[in-house]
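In response to a reviewer's request, we include the raw inputs and outputs for one of the modeled complexes. The two entities were modeled together in a single run.
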Amino acid sequence: MLELQNISYSVIENNVTKEILKDISVRIEDDFTAITGPNGGGKSTLAKIIAGIIKPTEGKIIFDGEDITDMAITDRARAGISFAFQQPVRFKGITVKDLITLAAGEKNIKTSGACEYLSAVGLCARDYINREVNASLSGGELKRIEIAMIMARGTKLSVFDEPEAGIDLWSFNNLIKVFEKMHENTNGSIIIISHQERILNIADRIIVIADGQIKESGSREELLPQLLSANGSCKYYMGQED
Amino acid sequence: MDAIQKNLLEQIAGLHEVPAGAYNFRVNGEGVGRNTTANIDIVTKKDKPGIDIFIKAGTKNESVHIPVVLSAAGLKDLVYNDFYVGDDCDVTIVAGCGIHNGGDGDSSHDGIHCFHIGKNARVRYVEKHYGEGDGKGSRIMNPTTEVEIDEGGYMEMDTVQIRGIDSTHRVTTGRLGKDATLIIREKIMTHGTQRATTDFKVDLDGEGSSTNVISRSVAKEHSYQLFKSEINGNNRCAGHSECDAIIMDEATVSAVPQITANHIDASLIHEAAIGKIAGEQIIKLMTLGLTEAEAEAQIVNGFLK
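The model returned the following structure tokens for the whole complex.
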């Protein structure tokens, strides 16, 4: 349902053109796609291009048969694209409930509904629902609220940029369950950018991006053993590397 | 009261009808209604416009409403209200002023409120300022609040000016005795060519006294805001002031904090931040399906909530 056609993105730094993404073409139809690869390879840029935050220098984005390349963030969100930030944003005065209610949009969820999403991401709803999304929340708490917002939206396509980053090991187990459940229940596609073997392990398909290009793309069965056995990568994908 | 006056009353005091407890309504410069209770007396001043409010020692869970409404254009209203809150009270005082100016002359209300708070008394003071009307005349409010808190007393002051006031210069002073506490929360939004100056001065005289002055404001369009706060630590005490402003469009915001420690055990902190709405906040809300304008409104509303 999502098709990237020859997507390139470059920036000019000190009069030198730097290519962040080079001619990325891929069709994402599977339920659950994991995008992985070394830091600085262009994964987050690709996610932002899908959400409309960054406009590609070249190429087209087709979503459900419609060309959305020139569509603004708001219109893409309304068309059914959700994006969980790698570094969630803080808001003074806006509560967790406010954000989840905004995320749910016209579904008009009640407090009990918002609480369900919080519980699903391992936060005790009663303690969090009226908290302000400000500096009093830890990075890990914010990440989970970010995921709860995406669940509340329930759109056709959900993109998560390193949801595991900043989440402690204990909570990580619950996070995996959240994605497994989302995988079972959702009718749409999930794209997760991740370095974690356990997330790659529940993906239907894995795409490896490095140096702005797709290095590998295939089913989990094909790719995962190869990724894990590659020289030096074991530690990396086991999440043991910093 | 007519429909305009009723609407102003609802805006500033959240009142749809006559409140329970003591009250004094002032409309267009004249008292139009008053109620006293066994514990709370309201007496008209003889030497100048205004009232004295006497709250008996030990009064608990009672409230006083003293809203002021100006709906006649070109009216200049000056009023002195003195509150005498007895020892060990626990009361809520709701003041506020609403101006509807549909004419071309300036309307102004200068309210001078003095609080004398007794030992171990607790006061919650809520003050809202609101203006409306499409006349060319300005809506001007210059509230002055003077607070004296005796030993162990506590006052919490919420002051809000969200819209419609063209010019305001608000002065708040506090003098705190032993173990007394004063908490001030101010919320201001200005737009158009409005000007708002706030001036806080708190003297922490008593041992163990403390204050927290928190201002959150949004300045839009061509408006101007000046925030001044002065905290003097004259004993073992704790003082904190915080000014947090969002600036938009062509507005100007200035924060002038001043903290002075005159005692070795005075602990004083000031924080001030002025900045525009972070781009990533707007983008986050846009990814939830809000337009840029809707996102901005949500952020501003939340900030001033």
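As requested, we also summarize the result in words. The radius of gyration of chain B is 20 Å. Chain B has one domain: 3-277.
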